């Protein structure tokens, strides 16, 4: 019985650690945007070297899944690079 209680306590402690550190490890979408996107799309999302992300027509899909796909795979013929190798799916999701 004592072993069962110890295992349960260990499980609860592990779950608490996972929840605490898992929440702390969430990607910061705003910081990632500034790092990877702002140079072309502007710090305020209004555009610059690339189109505005606030006002304008979304030529390649406006839904989150389309935007995530475009970030991940890029739009080569327009000069948008792929971020597949430099950002995780969770980081891309955080930016969107």
Reading the helices and strands in chain order gives HHHHH
Q: How many structural domains in the coordinates?
A: 1
Give the class from helix and strand content and strand pairing: mainly alpha
Q: Report strand %.
A: under 5%
What's the shape? globular
What is the gyration radius calculated from CA atoms? 20 Å
Instruction: Give a quick account of the main beta sheet: strands, pairing sense, barrel closure.
Output: none
Q: What is the end-to-end distance?
A: 49 Å
Which second-level CATH architecture applies?
Orthogonal Bundle
Q: Low-confidence segments, ≥5 residues, pLDDT <50?
A: 7-12
Compute the number of helices: 5
**CATH level-1 class:** Mainly Alpha
Give me the CATH superfamily.
Cytochrome c-like domain
The third-level CATH topology is Cytochrome Bc1 Complex, Chain D, domain 2
Proportion of residues in helical segments: 40-55%
Q: Count the E strands.
A: 0
Arithmetic mean of pLDDT: 82
Keywords: Heme, Iron, Metal-binding, Signal
Domain Cytochrome c: 24-96
Organism: Mariniphaga anaerophila
GO molecular function: electron transfer activity; heme binding; metal ion binding
